[in-house]
């Protein structure tokens, strides 16, 4: 007689013999004796009463640094990053996975090991600091997932960077560029958008007439996701009036929108045509915009409301520089005869 009991599965082996298993969804399986065995019902009842749910854990990679990188790149935090930020992180992360220390277990890392990793980039402090930033994020993820109790990168100090990033355009350089490119040209429009909105090139190339809100320009920053409403400066308004009526403000000769990198390369040619030195970039005009606001007496919060900086540390560099100049001039005035 064949019994009809729940969770019983019959499996025929290669010799043709039927074997019985107690298999309940979410529980561990158990081999049962044959139905003709006097102990079958007792074994079945025992399995039915004692079955405990099997703890199902998501599959995760080996707990090495390389495995942690794969794990984090599948996380919600990584996928929530802006596309350009993900591309930058991915490039560095894939390079880290090629290194000899990538196969070390996450639990083996100590602050001294993190410092040794950064020491490999001592000639390029900015690159070292980028890796430190990413390692901090990775080990934070390791802590939150229970891979280790602490973050070994949090106690490691950043390398001192000699340079301050992109060179800030001076007023003389801005004036020389404007003298080369007349009002109504795409070159002049590019400068106006950069210096009168204080935005990154990745945001400037996406701006269009659809973003105008009366005397305001709405910006959704690609890097941070921040939404900004920026008053349109009269000089910018003049250039926007001459901009294309449809599509983005900045367009290629073929009428297409620029990519961020494509715009950078074209802007480099425009800068060279104005006989301005190498090193002056679109980002330098973003810094010039912050400098102008600081020189006008704007507070750090007011400047950040335009530039969209997530923290005030960067903005404070501009206000400190302006305050230093004002104090220095005031000090000299006091000792003039």
Keywords:
single chain; about 325 residues; mainly alpha; hpI Integrase, Chain A; 3 domains; three-stranded antiparallel β-sheet; 14 helices; about 45% helix
Structural features, described:
The chain is mainly alpha-helical and 337 residues long. The protein has three domains: 8-50; 65-144; 171-326, Orthogonal Bundle (hpI Integrase, Chain A), CATH 1.10.443.10. 47% of the residues lie in helices and 7% in strands. The chain is built from 14 helices and six strands. It has helices spanning 40-50, 65-72, 76-79, 83-97, 111-119, 125-144, 171-180, 186-197, 201-204, 234-241, 260-273, 282-295, 300-307, 313-335, and strands at residues 8-12, 18-22, 30-32, 212-213, 216-220, 227-231. The strands form two sheets. A three-stranded antiparallel β-sheet has the order 1-2-3, covered by helices on one side. Strands 4-5-6 form a three-stranded antiparallel β-sheet, with no helix packed on it. A hairpin with a 7-residue loop joins β2 and β3 (30-32). α5 (111-119) packs antiparallel against α6 and α8 crosses α12. The mean pLDDT is 89.
């Amino acid at each position: 007689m064949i019994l009809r009991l729940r969770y019983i599965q019959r499996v025929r082996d290669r010799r043709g013999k039927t074997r019985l298993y107690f298999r309940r969804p979410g529980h561990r399986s158990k081999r049962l004796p044959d139905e003709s065995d006097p102990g079958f019902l007792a074994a079945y009842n025992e399995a039915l009463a004692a079955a405990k749910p099997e703890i199902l854990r998501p599959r995760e990679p080996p707990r090495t640094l390389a495995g942690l990188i794969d794990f984090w790149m599948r996380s919600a935090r990584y996928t929530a990053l802006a596309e350009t930020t993900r591309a930058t992180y991915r490039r560095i992360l894939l390079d880290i996975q090629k290194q000899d220390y990538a196969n070390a277990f996450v639990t083996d890392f100590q602050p001294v090991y993190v410092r040794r990793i950064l020491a490999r980039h001592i000639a390029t402090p900015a690159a070292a600091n980028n890796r430190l930033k990413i390692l901090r994020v990775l080990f934070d993820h390791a802590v939150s997932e229970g891979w280790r109790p602490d973050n070994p990168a949090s106690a490691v100090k950043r390398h001192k960077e000699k340079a301050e990033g992109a060179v800030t355009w001076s007023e003389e350089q801005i004036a020389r560029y404007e003298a080369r490119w007349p009002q109504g040209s795409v070159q002049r429009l590019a400068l106006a958008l950069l210096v009168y909105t204080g935005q990154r090139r990745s945001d400037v190339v996406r701006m269009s007439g659809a973003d105008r809100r009366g005397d305001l320009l709405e910006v959704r920053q690609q890097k941070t996701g921040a939404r900004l409403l920026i008053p349109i400066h009269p000089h910018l308004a003049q250039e926007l009036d001459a901009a294309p009526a449809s599509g983005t403000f900045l367009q290629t000769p073929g009428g297409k929108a620029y990519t961020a990198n494509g715009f950078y390369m074209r802007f480099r040619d425009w800068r060279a045509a104005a006989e301005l030195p190498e090193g002056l970039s679109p980002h330098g005009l973003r810094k010039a915009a912050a400098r102008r606001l600081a020189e006008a007496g704007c507070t750090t919060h007011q400047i950040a409301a335009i530039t969209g900086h997530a923290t005030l540390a960067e903005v404070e560099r501009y206000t400190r520089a302006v305050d230093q100049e004002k104090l220095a001039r005031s000090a000299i005035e006091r000792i003039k005869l």
